[in-house]
């Protein structure tokens, strides 16, 4: 693991980190801005087709495809004078906030149900850089247009002069709120513009929060809403210690531009045992990315997890499990930052996702199959591991863009109370957090052993009660074959609902 890397380059440094600007006087009393985010299933609304943002040239990028049925987190915002309402997808994996232009082709004939933006109807609109905004996502969708400044309202807070993109030409019917590092702004990677103050930075500059940091609580898969809290943490939304981790610099540079932390262990736990899994990739840099619905981990590790949870692959090589595994009491315990570091337990009930079809033969004949929330990353020289929403729902995550740290704790599902603690000043460390004590001692390239047997596996497949997942009707018909993976069971045929 590289040593602590304080962001001394670029825009955050120009804000005067560690210098005289650390003044709390001008911020409003609470120093936080709270924003509700709604979870939406693609089957209930427009198709969510966003994947992870392609990285800039020089690094190998895999296509990490989001499952279109697993939904996304959306936030309501208002733009312009008078305010126009739009609903945008929240994304920690990109850094621009942009909306679809009302006059764009995709909005013709009522194609933009989430709202769009019409600059001609805003008296405060200023076009900044014509043609400079261009962003591409790994599923080949994209948006092109201009950067502009205007009034932006989110979570009841108003920013007077926010820089945003407008998608004049796009195949995505809604925009995004990208809350990543300014150095990762699309127009910066392409050399079109210099870094600008994106949403988290502008909130600081306009005095709404005391530092450039926020925390995210997605809540349960069964719940429809979570929240993003700029400038603070909410101690009622997690249990156990909130552990601080350093963020890895991007592999081809010394600068931190994304939220990658060190995954150092995974243990499968059930009533029949506890198996410490191994991976040649540990410590694995994993990006905490809310814009990705599934999680993508090292192949050797994922194969062990599939053995534990009896995950099989369908004809499209997508992992599935019987939907009633949602009642399994088994869980995976993810460890970060070495011994004694952050721990987040992810139960099977959070990993068993939407129904995709029925098994028509084999041990699970007659049962409904559900998508499993963890997949492998194709092995390449420079793999990019991601912990997306299927992991993030079980965690309370704090992103500190000034100190280049993240903090993780076990989430408190369905917490209704709130105890908000604001960061006191610019560059203050994450409130109520403790550093992972052995992070400096993490050894790269020490291969952790694969278990020789899997005693926990039996406990993963024992389920009781009826599955609470209701199979959805109206999906594609047809017949698929699902191969049982590594279990010697042979082929199982599988039909779509
Ligand atoms: C708004 O921001 C732009 C840069 O994004 C800057 O050039 C302009 O001066 C700002 N306007 C005000 C009123 O602060
Ligand atoms: C959270 O609430 C939802 C209903 O809104 C419920 O279905 C779910 O089981 C709850 N989760 C937990 C962990 O209690
Ligand atoms: C997570 O799992 C580990 C291993 O079983 C356990 O020791 C720990 O108490 C669990 N944490 C929480 C918050 O449940
Ligand atoms: C799939 O199985 C469920 C019960 O598990 C049943 O209600 C449903 O009709 C089946 N669907 C098809 C297409 O066979």
UniProtKB/TrEMBL annotation:
Question: Source organism's superkingdom?
Answer: Eukaryota
GO terms of molecular function: aspartic-type endopeptidase activity
Task: Please tell me whether the keyword Protease is annotated for this protein.
Answer: yes
- The residues the entry assigns to the signal sequence are 1-22
Answer yes or no on keyword Aminoacyl-tRNA synthetase. Answer: no
Q: Name one GO biological process term.
A: proteolysis
**PROSITE patterns in alphabetical order:** ASP_PROTEASE (PS00141), PEPTIDASE_A1 (PS51767)
Disulphide bridges in this chain?
Answer: 323-370
Q: Write out the catalytic residues in the record.
A: 91, 289
Question: InterPro entries of this UniProt entry?
Answer: Aspartic_peptidase_A1 (IPR001461), Aspartic_peptidase_AS (IPR001969), PEPTIDASE_A1 (IPR033121), Peptidase_aspartic_dom_sf (IPR021109), SAP-like (IPR033876)
Record keywords: Aspartyl protease, Disulfide bond, Hydrolase, Protease, Signal
- Peptidase A1 domain residues: 73-409
The family line of this record is: Belongs to the peptidase A1 family.
Give the protein name, as stated in the record: Aspartic peptidase domain-containing protein
What organism does the record attribute this protein to? Diplogelasinospora grovesii
